[in-house]
Prior knowledge:
By secondary structure, the chain is mainly beta. The chain has 2 domains: about 5-170, Immunoglobulin-like; about 175-280, Immunoglobulin-like (Sandwich). Helices cover about 10% and strands about 40% of the residues. It contains 3 helices and 18 strands. The protein has helices at about 5-10, 155-170, 205-210, and strands spanning about 25-30, 40-50, 55, 65-70, 75-80, 85-90, 95-100, 105-110, 120-130, 135-150, 175-185, 185-195, 210-215, 225-230, 235-240, 255-260, 275, 280. The strands form 5 sheets. A 5-stranded mixed sheet has the order 14-15-12-11-18, with no helix packed on it. A hairpin with a 2-residue loop joins strand 11 and strand 12.
Amino acid sequence: MTFRLLLFALCSWPFALQAQTGLKLQLVSEQSAIVPGKPFTVGLWIQHDRGWHTYWRFPGIVGVATEMNWSLPQGWKAGPLIHPEPERTFMFQVKAQGYDRDVMLRAEITPPVNLKPGEQVTLTGKAVWMCCGTSCHPGSMDLSLTLPVAAESQVNQKWHALLEAERVRAERTSEAWKAEASEKGNEVTLTLRPADARAALRRNQPDAEKIIVFTEDGWFDSDKPQTITLHSDGTLTIQLIKAETYLGGKPPATLRCILRHEDGWVKGESWRCLQISPRIVR
């Protein structure tokens, strides 16, 4: 049994009946009412008990991403569940991709146009997750949200503030940086070059070493060392180690990843996560 499979087994089997250990979940709406035909945002608000975490949309070599399986009335549509920017978390001593903080996931819901003001609609779905602390607890929970139908709607300021904060922190692409990737044996080399004057350069080698690279598809191992070298022109070279197991079938053509640095990547802008997907030269 591989190390990853062993950890998954340890985290799954003994605790499968412990459904809500380590967290609280709530389904919330950014709007006070449903306007016929007008899309609106619903949030999955996850509050972690101290010392517990859940996982990003790709958890790394361990863990299970949080999902939301909707059971909507006929004529309704739900967009994908959007996870905020990834953070490094630990399952025991293993580096993973998830959230220690309280986090707001979100999805866009589109109602049909034939709803009538004065009605009430209940939206339902099942949340599925894995929550880990000193032990791991896969869980699921049926959630619901009842809202009135109206010709106009007001913003719920509490949930809007939390949702907007997650939107502001979302990962982004930028033409201020040019990425290249090459692969040899089990090592992947990522080169990131400043492409114009907007690029926020790392101040020194210790500052560069604060970068965390997150995998979007599991091609490299989230737990292995990431060796970062800062060059005099601001170029960054990052050595990554391929994962022992890749579930995506044939090798990917591009290196899909997100680079996080707390000081950001573009001058004058505060977002922290740069999304890149350079072609892998083999």
